[in-house]
């Protein structure tokens, strides 16, 4: 059956993928944290990166300037920046570590996957190692202005219920604010078509499901990411479905975004593949092929919620 054929199971981590590099004096790999443990920093920033040696520095500089500015008014602000090198064949991780050395960024942690998982897999593995009170992921190209994280954090604080909330950046925001979005007509058209398709398949109430700028309370991340299956581009939809099934509040926040050259995504080919993958994801949950792990579901939510949606 086609649905069963498209029911992926993420591979287990290689032992080396449980460790990270930073710029400590010993230059030794250190063991990653665990999402199930108590938070040790205010914010975890997870960056999936595949062959991003040319574009990554823009984001790193954006994050560094943001932290410097925030610490002027909030000296105790703490964070970690987890670069998930997803099996790159270029010098992505070297570029990240060199930038960290140049600017004394001891908070930067570099993780290297032995084999490419895909963007969703890199995000999931990174978030499951995050130690922040809030956990976010953002794209490596710096297309979204990183300072917009303050708007997501503010809305998350306003919207959270019992410590649960997901705040997602939105590029479909003309009706919401005066933020700036710059993208090609082709990308805009395909996004519109994809949004219509997503709505038909039951993911409603979100204007922009695919923006690579999403924030989670630690409690919400614990409920969502241990249950993730999808490791490619459509993983954003599974995140939103898992939030819906577990009644986690989701709030959409306008962000400033511009299209950056050098994307690894083929707009037409990958859009078709994403449409097929989305159908498979929805059917896997509806038919009960995928279930939400009982240990990760709030006590007031039945494991049959997904099947009844």
Mean pLDDT: 85
Largest beta sheet: strand ordering: 5-4-3-6-9-7-10
Q: Can you summarize the main beta sheet?
A: 7 strands, mixed
Low-confidence stretches: 1-5, 300-308
Q: What characteristics describe this protein?
A:
309 residues; alpha/beta; 7-stranded mixed β-sheet; two-stranded antiparallel ribbon; 11 strands; 17% strand; globular; disordered N terminus; disordered C terminus
SSE topology sketch:
Layout: H1 2-5, E1 19-20, E2 30-31, E3 41-49, H2 56-73, E4 79-85, H3 92-103, E5 108-112, H4 119-127, E6 132-138, H5 149-159, E7 166-170, E8 181-182, H6 185-200, E9 213-217, H7 218-224, H8 235-245, E10 250-254, E11 257-258, H9 267-286, H10 305-308
Parallel strand pairs: 3-4, 3-6, 4-5, 7-10, 8-11
Antiparallel strand pairs: 1-2, 6-9, 7-9
Structure summary:
This protein is α/β, with parallel strands linked by helices and 309 residues long.
